[in-house]
Design goal:
TIM Barrel, alpha/beta, binds coenzyme A, 291 residues, 10 helices, eight-stranded parallel β-barrel, two-stranded antiparallel ribbon, binds magnesium ion
Length: 291
Amino acid sequence: MRSFLFVPADSERKLAKGASSGADALILDLEDSVALSNKEAARKSAVDYLKSADRNGPKLVVRINALDTLFWRAELEAVIPERPDMILIPKTFSGECVNRVGQVIDMLERDAGIAPEGHVGIGCVATETAASLFALGTYAGAHPRLTFLTWGAEDLAAALGARDNKDENGVYTGPYQLARTLTLLGAVAAGVAPIDGICKDFRDEKGLEAEARAAVRDGFTGKVAIHPGQIPVINAVFTPSEDDLAHARAVIEAFEKAGDVGVVALDGVMLDIPHLKQAQRLIDRAAAIRS
Ligand code: COA
Ligand code: MG
């Protein structure tokens, strides 16, 4: 999945708009975009949406409230029988949070008679407190449902008492670069998808594209959006281009032609086994996006 669009679950208009946004997944949000007074209405509206949505459309993810609130369990009880594709846990502090939620989902699925192949996945926003950054190495093996990790700079800035999380050129400062990097490493170490966080300046298409390109360059496989206008940019950047694919094919061909060797030269550049792996991975990824 390349693009995940946050949709406040208490907004009928946004829920309606999200379906046609072109996003690979919608995140029906019960957390930070929903006022405290509206939590129950948002939960009902998310359940109704899950019941009635075209399930051949975007994947449906529900972001529950954090594990230090009273909401999250009731939210899981309400949504799991309606078979969302994934649950997104905010403000996780370690792999232990995934295990805790994973076990509750195991029970709820059993109670609802949902077969094991109907398993709902789990994503985490894993960088929203200072302590959480020290635990990004704990997600590997936390629970088999873990599917992706993403990061957030807004709650982290609030937790740190920061005035801003970007410098005067609009570039994330040290603490947020660290959060982004540790999320990438933690996700890859856990064998799950690393998903880049949001760009909150939703009218700044150039800034979004630059962030998305940097994310692809570093190994992220998708990015979260907060506005439908961001989806075409994210989908385009995270889809391997014809040029990228042609280069990957040329790398594979160069190795095939050379026979049983570990290193070849292509257009004045040394290529060895990691480059062959990267080329194969790009082709596999393009095929997965097409299917
Ligand atoms: N999902 C679906 N539809 C959305 C949307 C979203 N995230 N954001 C905007 N839209 C819709 C609007 O409802 C509007 O459609 P309408 O005319 O049919 O009502 C259209 O897209 C254009 O919206 P626009 O006027 O450009 O923006 P806005 O001022 O209405 O909304 C935000 C701006 C930031 C409030 C809105 O984009 C939003 O709520 N984003 C999600 C926030 C969120 O979930 N945060 C938590 C995670 S960080
Ligand atoms: Mg938040």
